[in-house]
């Protein structure tokens, strides 16, 4: 389902929205690896999506991959991550 939705999205912003939605659905179900894969698929399409890098960092943190989580968060900040991007 996620793959079809992502393939059909014409803009990066829509891809980011899909990633956010899928991420929260998966995280609430404790599906951290799937949440990480969802983020990575959006990053493949839009590697300059700072909010998706943040989501990736949270999934990595949930998996106990703290070093990788810090690196993903730092990359998102470098791209302009703003904590208010999900408001």
Please explain how this structure is put together.
With 87 residues, the chain is mostly helical. Helices cover 74% and strands 0% of the residues. It has five helices and no strands. Helix 2 (12-28) runs parallel beside helix 4 (50-62).
Question: Which key terms come to mind for this protein?
Answer:
5 helices, mainly alpha, 87 residues, 74% helix
Summarize the structure.
The chain is 74% helix and 0% strand. It is mainly α and 87 residues long.
Let me know the number of strands: 0
Number of helices: 5
Secondary-structure content class = mainly alpha
Percent of residues in beta strands: under 5%
- Which consecutive residue ranges, at least 5 long each, have pLDDT under 50? none
Ends distance: 25 Å
Silhouette:
globular
Helix content: over 70%
């Amino acid at each position: 389902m996620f793959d079809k939705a992502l393939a059909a999205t014409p803009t990066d912003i829509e891809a980011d929205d899909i990633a956010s939605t899928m991420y929260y659905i998966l995280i609430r179900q404790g599906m951290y690896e799937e949440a990480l894969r969802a983020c990575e698929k959006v990053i493949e399409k839009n590697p300059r999506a700072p909010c998706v890098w943040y989501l990736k960092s949270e999934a990595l943190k949930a998996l106990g991959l703290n070093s990788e989580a810090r690196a993903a968060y730092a990359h998102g900040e470098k791209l302009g991550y703003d904590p208010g991007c999900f408001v």
